[in-house]
C-alpha cells in the first residue's frame, strides 16, 4: 500500500528477500509496495550485498530526527526601534544601485543588500526573492528587436 512508511517487519522481509536472491519486483510484490520503494530502500542502506534490516531501521530513525525547535519564548517577535519597512526598502534599493556601480552583478548586489539590511544577517532565498521588485520584460525577451 503506497504512502505508508516501511516498518521494521518490512525491512526484515526485504533483507530475507535479498538473502534469497529475489529481485526487487518480487520483494515489492510480497510487501504490496512499489518496486521503486524497495530499490530506494536498498540503495539508501548499503546496496543488495550489504543491506541489513536492523541497521536500515537505525539509519531511518536517525534520518527522521528533526532539528529541535527553539523554545516558544525565542520565537516571539521582538519589537526593535529602527527604520520602518519603507525606509529599509529604500536603503536596499540605494545600496543595490551603489554595488552595481562597482561592477557587481545586479543579482549579487541585491542579495548582498538584502542580507546587509536584515536584522539577523541571514535570510532564506524565498525571502530575498520575494522582495525583488517586478521588472518589465525587455524588448529582446518578448521577441521584439
What does this structure look like?
The longest helix has 17 residues. The C terminus is likely disordered. Helix 1 packs antiparallel against helix 2, helix 1 runs antiparallel to helix 4 and helix 6 packs antiparallel against helix 7. 56% of the residues lie in helices and 0% in strands. By secondary structure, it is mainly α.
Class from helix and strand fractions? mainly alpha
Q: Provide the residue-averaged pLDDT.
A: 79
Number of strands: 0
Could you name the ranges where pLDDT drops below 50 across 5 or more consecutive residues?
Answer: 134-145
Categorize the overall geometry. Answer: elongated
Helix content: 55-70%
Element order: H for helix, E for strand = HHHHHHHH
Number of helices: 8
Q: Biggest sheet, open or closed, and with what strands and sense?
A: none
Distance N to C terminus: 56 Å
Topology:
Layout: H1 8-19, H2 24-31, H3 35-44, H4 53-64, H5 72-75, H6 85-101, H7 106-117, H8 125-130
Essential attributes:
145 residues, mainly alpha, 56% helix, 0% strand, disordered C terminus
Short description:
With 145 residues, the protein is mainly alpha-helical. The protein has helices spanning 8-19, 24-31, 35-44, 53-64, 72-75, 85-101, 106-117, 125-130.
